[in-house]
Amino acid sequence: MTKTTHASLVSHQFGSRADAYVQSATHAQGEDLDQLAAIVSARPAGRVLDLGCGGGHVGFKAAPYANEVVAYDLSAEMLAALSREAAKRDIANLVTKQGRAEHLPFDDGSFDIVLSRFSAHHWQDFPAALREARRVLKSGGVAAFVDVVAPGNPLLDTFLQAVELFRDPSHVRNYSCAEWRRAVAAAGFTPGAATERRLRLDFASWVERMGTPEIHRQAIRSLHSRMPAEVLSHFAIEADGSFTLDTMTLEAVAA
How far apart are the C-alpha atoms of 196 and 154, rounded to whole Å? Predict the structure, then answer.
């Protein structure tokens, strides 16, 4: 069996699918994305960190209101793909930097705003990454984190983590709303408003975007067919496998 680190697995998983994420309609729109843009636009133009930027959609939305946006990601291929897209859109104030969320190569207090969307469930060390986000944010600066959140019910939580892992082996964990608030506070933020939403995902495009192997797609559908009514109802699992997840946007201030 080939041995690989989690960091290299994440980089491989997303590097090989970079263009799919840049072009993803699911990632390119949504009320949560509009909320992040509003957070940036409501403040004086400053320096914004898009932490775990993926396809760059947060950075694209933030750029019109910022002096500079730094798109930061583990995957060099993902950064290259979003740079090409930024050039097509004539976005001149977006720069890229490669690295891990747990070790940010930036000075203390060097950003006015830190944003992260659908990235944290891939972080190998969730508390360390949040501490780093706080370190690079100016005192009084604003952060906002968007991610899929785990239901508090253990049955529902177990199902969510299982299908996430079958779809993408670089998945670490979706955290509950309560876990998020505790972790953000422990990292040195003052947690603020939390906006909870529901996100419907089309099964076919969800697995295709990640290049999920057919055997794992079948495993997910097999789980669907054997789940109790509580799971089927909460995730609104449809005949074709499409389903609905819980998400949260958590705003915080650097204490």
Answer: 19
